[in-house]
Design goal:
There is one protein chain. By secondary structure, the chain is an all-alpha fold. The chain has one domain (about 30-160). It is built from 5 helices and no strands. The protein has helices at about 5-20, 35-65, 70-90, 105-130, 135-160. The longest helix is centred in the first third of the chain and has 32 residues, at about 35-65. It is elongated and about 55 Å long.
Length: about 170
């Protein structure tokens, strides 16, 4: 990908993220990188927190209906959402120390974050659309599977490698 395509791509990903998180500046500025990552993770955390409340309501509803098959599924989803909030509370491993990250890597981060954000938004929307009474088991199983994939992806994000642009080598003397 040439540099002009990369810049256009980066702008498109940032625009899509900003549709959800107004004022998000992205990761290009090394001095703001940690702050922007925190803003991104806090946004996700608030969205997940709202979903926890909805899943607790659904779990209560299926418990009253004595739908034990769904009760264990919702328990799994609730546990996964709480784990997701724990992961979001942790800062990423390596981003802060790397000031010279190349624009291709930053664009890739924006793409990954945008896809994650949109995937989480679709997951949350599906939770909101579940009927409180007698949701279909297949719908709930799909939610479990989607959540497991979202958890895997957020773990991968927290461990992303930070390639840096070629920096001049220091001579030890």
């Amino acid at each position: 990908m040439n540099e002009s395509q990369n810049t256009l791509s980066e702008a498109a990903w940032l625009k899509r993220i900003r549709q959800h998180i107004p004022g998000f500046d992205g990761y290009a500025d090394p001095e703001k990188r940690t702050e922007e990552d925190e803003r991104f993770r806090r946004f996700l955390d608030r969205a997940v927190a709202r979903s926890v409340v909805r899943v607790e309501d659904l779990e209560h509803s299926v418990a009253e209906e004595k739908r034990l098959d769904l009760l264990s599924d919702f328990d799994h989803i609730l546990s996964g959402l709480k784990h997701l909030r724990e992961v979001l509370a942790l800062p990423p491993d390596a981003e802060e120390d790397a000031a010279d990250i190349n624009s291709e890597t930053i664009s890739e981060w924006h793409r990954e974050d945008c896809e994650y954000l949109e995937g989480l938004a679709a997951f949350i929307e599906r939770i909101e659309q579940l009927p409180a009474s007698c949701p279909e088991r297949n719908d709930v199983l799909l939610l479990k599977d989607t959540l497991d994939r979202l958890l895997q992806r957020i773990h991968e994000r927290s461990r992303r490698d930070v390639p840096v642009t070629d920096a001049p080598e220091r001579e030890d003397g």
